[in-house]
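call fold(seq) -> tokens
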Amino acid sequence: MHKILTAFLCMTIIVVWGISLGMADDEATSNSEDTMCIPLGILSLEPPDTVEAKRSPVDFPHALHFNLACMECHHQWTAEEEPIQSCGTSGCHELEAPPEPDSGDDAIMYYKNAFHDLCLGCHREIKALNKKVAMTMGGSEEQVKTTGPTGCILCHPK
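ret:
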């Protein structure tokens, strides 16, 4: 009888503890101010609405980049209470055309340069590192993980 009572008491404690954890989790997720929404699917990267696109939008697999710190791309985000802003936000990469030489504008302020420098630069860096790894493995590049695209048509299909 003592074992049954002890088992019942343990089960009651576990159930009460589980319910309280569930309630705490529901409370935390229901408070939208404390919840950060991270898009998991494919994001479409396009020029600003005021710019006529010369190439197709880029399908960006956001979830494939979760091994990077958010600030690698969202470099002005402070991870505090403010939401992540788009690249075209005032003060970021807001130029809609390449800056004129000697204008004093930094070329990275042009949204297209920002994407190309960051995305292609990172992919080319990874590709170079992978090539070094392949060389240490007897020159077989099939044994190392591929990187993202490093050319135009892989990002901008017709």
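The helical segments are 2-30, 70-73, 111-136, 152-155.
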